[in-house]
């Protein structure tokens, strides 16, 4: 009966390091597990590309630090000699970066954590230079603290980004990937496989899987989405010890208990493989997750999302300052766009639309007009051709868009007037997409959590496909932002927005 509800898989050849003939029969299992535990396994060593990439990162950081300090010392020494200040700054940077895990292989190449550790390293370096100046009575270190160290950081962040792009392009071609063993239910393993393939930049490639508990029944090994199923969950440690995997990804299955996970962790000691357990209760990540020990038990603490406090004040200040600066810099472009729209059909330049902001409060959002003046009336005749997801109305070839409007939409220039909404405090530079009132009327309870924060000029939805996203994907990304917001994530999104806009990606 149990076998009848399991999905069927087609048989495929596993990777060359997998020995399917080694799957034990029930009578042999205890004996072979004891033998495997007693036999030393080949340790999964870092691949050559990992060492090379880390060497490039460290080398570029060292080169940039020495170059900036050499130039700074040359400029400053024209006033007074500061050789010891230069040496002290070099020492502070080279101590702070590794101490802040900025060179740790675990953070290189993916996520905002790499930039957080890099920023933390430079802040620590600046503090060390300042303390060194006070300790040795060199009070003229201000220029090194407030100019030289920030200058190093301003060069280091872009070079890290460029190195990461090189790595991501290689991963998109199937190179520089970590071999992963996935273990869990067929459904959750399939989901993990799909995610690793759609987001190759993460650097994982699922090469084998273990599923089901077996319950004493033999079954042929098959595959899940092209990945070979090499055995059952109770045999996982045996295959890990023999396979040379770098990551063992544990996905949801009723088989996993705290005792079994602890035993698996013990069995994997010395293999060089990292055990990663996917959270099954909620999709929460980032600074809200902490592991602590209480009463001798490891507990995963999930702190409540904070919508007020010091970090939000900083975000508010950056929003107002950033929008004012961008409006000033872009004012000539805004004038040119306004003239082009007016000359196109003599209609109004600005399109005003009611949108829903934080806590469900409505506000008037400003955009450059990209459609004909009677676009709302024409829309009623186009409902049958709607290509949008959920309650959204979208058409890739919308006949209401003007010639000038098509160009503005391609590069998101029509959204620039929203900087005035940011300046007035109704929107943020980064946040969930500002919804229409009729959209929010159809929101499920979970989707309404988007309204806990200010809507953004850009967001995760903007850098993840824009109009090409499904409604469910758009909601998931907005909720992820609400739950896991951080200043580092905002900076990453702003940079990715610039790339997406310049490429016209997903815009129509």
TrEMBL record:
Name of this chain's protein: Undecaprenyl-phosphate galactose phosphotransferase, WbaP/exopolysaccharide biosynthesis polyprenyl glycosylphosphotransferase
Domain Bacterial sugar transferase: 315-502
UniProt keyword Membrane, yes or no: yes
Membrane topology per record: Multi-pass membrane protein
Protein family (similarity comment): Belongs to the bacterial sugar transferase family.
Keywords of this entry: Membrane, Transferase, Transmembrane, Transmembrane helix
Superkingdom in the source lineage: Bacteria
UniProt cross-references to PANTHER family, sorted A to Z: COLANIC BIOSYNTHESIS UDP-GLUCOSE LIPID CARRIER TRANSFERASE, SLL5057 PROTEIN
InterPro entries cross-referenced by the UniProt entry: Bact_transf, EPS_sugar_tfrase
Gene Ontology CC: one annotated term: membrane
Organism in which the protein naturally occurs: Amycolatopsis australiensis
Transmembrane segments: 55-76, 82-100, 121-138, 144-163, 321-341
